Amino acid sequence: MTGPLVPDDAPGPMLVALDIDGTLMSYDQELSEDVRDAVAGLRAAGHHVVLASGRSLIAITPVAEILGIDRGWVVASNGAVTARLDPEEPDGYALEDVVTFDPGPALRLLREHLPDARYAVEDVGVGFRMNELFPDGELDGVHRVVEFDELWSGEVTRVIVRSPGSTSEEFHELVEHLGLDDVTYAVGWTAWMDLAPLGVTKATGLELVRRALHVQPHRTVAVGDGHNDVEMLQWAARGVAMGHADAAVQEAADEVTGTIDDDGAADVLRSLLP
């Protein structure tokens, strides 16, 4: 599938939005030199490279550091957290937009149907509160185990549901059955689900960034591989799905590049350079 290219001779910088896991970074958490070089080339040419991920903010910043991005914007937590990287800030970033919601109704409903699942809520810039520990390496930051009803002691940006005994297909069926219509949800490759405030996606965060940077809509590019990338791919003037993405994600894109094993994202990034 081949879609429209962002015109090389159009005036002004591009905004290039990039998912991380399965797009820039392999499932073994490896970032290729080709990706690093292409990102550096785009930034040197004056374009805006914006990491847009389901990861928390504190899990995105180390990737930005590896890529040499010390200034610029990032969209975290599937769009609920938008921040501006700045080495002069105490934490290395400034929060620009944080969207929260009351997780209580969804958590109570989900636990009725998934009593053995693990649940976590994000504390922005700190880590997660959870009803029991998640497997090592799945979440960053400080992990604090609390009673289940403490998970909705205040509004949050994100809820994570991890149910090793379920499949992603079963998650989709459960959400449709429960009618969780007051949140935005995304199901991962495994039995993992993110809940975000209603209407919040990577695309909503990226639109905020686009306006702040005064980038023209036709100068936007996005690359991703997951269901939480669909809105982002549709938002961009040139939305590119990774070759290993499933059919629903590829259909949302203007074109499809190589898989993560083929370093497909690097090919897209190089195509944006003169």
Count of individual domains: 2
Average of per-residue pLDDT values: 91
Q: Could you give the order of strands across the largest sheet?
A: 5-4-3-2-1-12-13-14
Helix coverage percent of residues? 25-40%
CATH architectural type of the largest domain = 3-Layer(aba) Sandwich
CATH class of the largest domain: Alpha Beta
Q: What is the H-and-E element order?
A: EHEHEEEHEEEEHEEHEHEHEH
Q: What is the fourth-level CATH superfamily of the largest domain?
A: HAD superfamily/HAD-like
The number of strands is: 14
Under CATH, the topology of the largest domain can be stated as Rossmann fold
- Which regions have little confidence, pLDDT < 50, spanning 5+ residues? none
> Number of helical segments?
8
Euclidean distance between termini CA atoms: 23 Å
Which structural class matches the secondary elements?
Answer: alpha/beta
Rg result: 18 Å
Strand residue content: 15-25%
Taking the sheet with the most strands, its summary is:
8 strands, mixed
Describe what you observe in this structure:
The protein is α/β, with parallel strands linked by helices. The chain folds into two domains: 15-99 and 201-271, Rossmann fold; 104-197, Hypothetical Protein, Haloacid Dehalogenase-like Hydrolase, Chain: A, domain 2. Helices cover 27% and strands 24% of the residues. The chain is built from eight helices and 14 strands. An eight-stranded mixed sheet has the order 5-4-3-2-1-12-13-14, with helices on both faces. It has a six-stranded mixed sheet with strand order 8-7-6-9-11-10, covered by helices on one side. Helix 1 runs parallel beside helix 8 (264-271).
